[in-house]
Design goal:
Elements: E1 2-5, H1 11-22, H2 26-37, E2 42-48, E3 51-63, E4 66-79, H3 88-102, E5 107-111, E6 123-124, E7 130-132, E8 141-145, E9 156-159
Parallel strand pairs: 4-5, 7-9
Antiparallel strand pairs: 1-2, 2-3, 3-4, 3-9, 5-8, 6-8
Helix pairs in contact: 1-2
Bound molecules: coenzyme A.
Organism: Alkalispirochaeta americana
Protein name: Putative acetyltransferase
Domain N-acetyltransferase: 1-147
Length: 167
């Protein structure tokens, strides 16, 4: 399996992965919207043989609606059913976080399963005094600092692009 940046030729396969993994078109549409409207983005695929089997997407989020911090949200991510539980998702997270670090991102947020993301170094956001704008249980909203202490002295609410409101 290799992990690489998405190209135009991957877009249809990426859409199919999200539709199959989530069982609805909402996440696929979210990716299409963000890909066309938002910069910077990080969009990476996992390829096995000639087949695109997984996708991970990062887009900017803000703390207290300020633009002075370089923060990205990990979402959405999906692996084709049939290829799940074989390490594809983990490889995407690890490579995706590396790419974020290479681009100078200070911290990454994720809204996801609290049994999955801590293995990559994500901590509950409340440990940083930071919350999600969404009314979710606090343990499902997590943050990983890529630059040590990047969020020191920063507290408040993380906001995602308005397109996330449709999912
Ligand atoms: C979540 C997902 C991307 C993980 O990809 P994957 O290739 O199966 O992940 P890996 O093989 O690297 O890791 C498997 C681990 O993830 C855990 N896992 C997978 N899906 C999970 C879920 N929905 N909730 C909790 N844990 C989950 C498995 O228990 C396994 O843990 P283990 O190693 O302790 O057994 C994939 O299952 C998927 O596409 N799910 C549907 C879409 C989704 O929920 N996306 C995430 C939210 S944005």
């Amino acid at each position: 399996m290799i992990i690489r940046e998405e190209t135009e030729e991957d877009i249809i396969a990426v859409r199919a992965i999200h539709e199959a993994a989530f069982g609805s078109p909402a996440e696929a549409e979210l990716v299409d919207t963000l890909r066309s409207q938002v910069r910077p983005i990080i969009s990476m695929v996992a390829v096995e043989g000639a087949l695109v089997v997984g996708h991970i997407f990062f887009s900017p989020v803000t703390l207290n609606s300020l633009q002075n911090l370089k923060l990205m949200g990990l979402a959405p991510m999906a692996v084709m059913p049939g290829h799940q539980r074989g390490g594809v998702g983990s490889a995407l997270v690890v490579r995706g976080l590396e790419e974020c670090a290479n681009r100078g991102v200070g911290a990454v947020t994720v809204l996801g399963h609290p049994a999955y993301y801590p293995r990559f170094g994500f901590l509950p956001s409340v440990r940083f005094g930071i919350r999600s704008e969404y009314p979710v249980p606090e343990e499902v909203f997590m943050i990983k600092e890529l630059i040590p202490n990047y969020l020191h002295d920063h507290r408040g609410t993380i906001n995602y692009h308005e397109a996330f409101g449709d999912v």
